[in-house]
Amino acid sequence: MITPDQIRGRCHTLDQAVRRGGWPNLAQARGKVMFLMDQKQTGPIYLKGHPGLRGRILFTNATPGHPDAAFVEENEGRVATISSLVRQGYLIRTQADSDTVEARTNDTRRRDQALNSGAQIVSTDYPEFEAAKWSGYRVALPGGSPAGCNPVIGPPNCVNSLLEPKSKR
What we know:
Radius of gyration: 17 Å
Shape: globular
Distance between the termini: 27 Å
Largest sheet: 3 strands, parallel
Number of helices: 6
Helix content: 10-25%
Structural class: alpha/beta
């Protein structure tokens, strides 16, 4: 498991740690899980008594610059904003589609922007194996890989197919 305390390390806050490159690399993270909680609707209840997520196992969607900031949701998919946050060290979640809008017309613009933004997590209601019934709209990484090179911060010689073996369905 990857926890906020592990990422924070010797830094005073999570925000400091991620801006200094505190995330594990792929080899260090392989086989581990991390838990992300959407808590903005209910307020920072999970933070109460645990400033900066000290002693907690979940990362909360936070505001950049705040002590608990490591994971940020940028659901509207503004590419420049997402790319900037990724370069700063944050883990970003965005959406490829919402409320069946893109799926009903097979509009891939938002999906393509999300995949090119550098966001490490791209949510969809229409993964590769479950296309939209209206239009065939679907979301998948190039080449069908389960993981991909980050287009914003990945090394220039990164090859998607070398990150993970292609999944068999």
